[in-house]
């Protein structure tokens, strides 16, 4: 199974994963598409931000920019994020017991046991996609003008700090400046 990003969402993904040249060297903000998709899904979920493809976009335009994310998204660390989102999402209108049923019955069996076209499985995929698209669009807005590794590190730090403040992990008076940029750790 694979996930695809189309149109502007594909362009956003390529911005984050493909090398950027900052005048001195190339760098990437995310190492691969699966990690970006997972981060975007979580970021969209945590910010209650979701999006869908524009239904007015014709198929030809929509497929001009296309990025494939292979099924490694559903394994390992990515599986944990998917499970967290599906158990807590607010898009589907499912009650808690329906979320548990849909998450564990249709998402986390061995691949050979998964019903490929099951409506609940497809609904789960759509929920994750909506959060991923919303999160991707939101983080692109925060990073679109980043030109250097140092700027990227500072933006990531800002996102983490914003999350810590929102969750009351730190108090506003405890805000500390972003760490000095060290090339050895980038």
How are the strands ordered across the major sheet? 1-4
Percentage of helical residues?
A: 40-55%
- Mind telling me the C-alpha Rg? 18 Å
| Total number of strands | 4
Instruction: State the distance separating the first and last CA atoms.
Output: 33 Å
For the biggest sheet, the summary is: 2 strands, antiparallel
> Given the C-alpha coordinates, what overall shape results?
globular
> Would you tell me the structural class of the helices and strands?
mainly alpha
Helix-strand string: EHEEHHEHHHH
| Poorly predicted tracts of residues | none
Give the helix tally: 7
Estimate nothing, just give the exact number of structural domains: 2
List keywords for this structure.
single chain; 186 residues; mainly alpha; 2 domains; two-stranded antiparallel sheet; 7 helices
Task: Tell me what you see in this structure.
- The longest helix is centred in the C-terminal third of the chain and has 25 residues, at 119-143.
- By secondary structure, this protein is mostly helical.
- The chain has helices spanning 7-17, 33-46, 59-64, 76-88, 96-106, 119-143, 149-166; strands at 3-6, 20-21, 26-27, 66-69.
- It folds into two domains: 3-144; 148-186, no CATH class.
- The chain contains seven helices and four strands.
- Helix 1 (7-17) packs across helix 6, helix 2 (33-46) packs parallel to helix 4 and helix 2 (33-46) crosses helix 6.
Q: What's the SSE blueprint?
A:
Blueprint: E1 3-6, H1 7-17, E2 20-21, E3 26-27, H2 33-46, H3 59-64, E4 66-69, H4 76-88, H5 96-106, H6 119-143, H7 149-166
Antiparallel strand pairs: 1-4, 2-3
Helix pairs in contact: 1-6, 2-4, 2-6, 4-5
